[in-house]
Amino acid sequence: MSDFREAVESISEAQCSEHPGFSADGACTRCGTFVCSFCALSWAGRCFKCVHAAPELATRRARLAASLVDGAVLLLPSLFLGVLRCLAIPDEAAMNAPVVYAPALLVLFVQASLIRGTGASLGKRLLGIRVVRRDGRPAEVWRIALLRNVLPMALCGYFGWLGLVDALFLVGEERRCLHDWVAGTRVVKAPRA
Fold it and tell me: Which residues are listed as membrane-spanning (predicted)?
């Protein structure tokens, strides 16, 4: 019982690490340093250092899994519809019909709206990661769509080896692919709600 009383007394006598002269009302939810009521309200219970700390980078596995999920979500509906058309109309070139690509366009629209709201596609949301600018601010939709997706896909169409080079950049210390360097983005772990 005396250990508990001593712990309570030490907390009540502690000062805020960011605002000297103010008594601590709690501890930072991330690192445990003492914070005052102003810090607890303004920074959601975190100290100044933890609020401005860089988010943790996403793992290579999470990025690969998110990419595979996004690719499957994009291709499988169109492939399924194409197979159904081939079975129904065996004489026509079913995969050349424009209706086969309608599901892919719908998926691209859904993905764009997800990215606009959270900075994460469906695969990234499932894996708990998101795309941010190099300085940690949210990345704009145009930056993600054009510089991270459309430009690399267009270049890979002409230079097939560029896809391998793009992926190999992920091995580096900063875990940024070539398209991340071009777009000025990085992929980080998303904070849990």
Answer: 64-87, 99-117, 150-171
Name, in order, each residue with C-beta under 8 angstroms of 50's C-beta and a sequence gap of 6 or more: 28, 30, 31, 43
For 42, the token pair is 């303004």
Token pair of 75 as six digits: 């291709």
The alpha-helical segments, DSSP class H, found in the chain are 2-13, 37-42, 48-51, 60-88, 102-118, 122-127, 141-142, 151-158, 162-168, 178-183
pLDDT at 46: 67
pTM (2 d.p.): 0.65
Residue with tokens 């596609």, as numbered in its chain: 121
Q: Is the pLDDT of residue 14 over 80?
A: no
Torsion of CA 150, 151, 153, 158, to 10 degrees: 140
| DSSP-derived 3-state class of residue 12 | helix
Q: Which residue has the higher pLDDT, 64 or 88?
A: 64
Task: Report which DSSP code applies to 148.
Answer: I
Tell me the per-residue pLDDT of 156-167, one tens digit each, with 9 for 90 and over.
888 888 888 888
Taking the CA of residue 94 as centre, how many other CA atoms within 13 Å lie in the half-sphere pointing to its CB?
14
Strands 129-133 vs 34-35: parallel, antiparallel or unpaired: unpaired
The pLDDT tens digits for 46-85 are 676 766 666 788 998 999 999 899 889 888 887 887 777 7
* Helices 102-118 and 60-88: angle between axes, nearest 10 degrees: 160
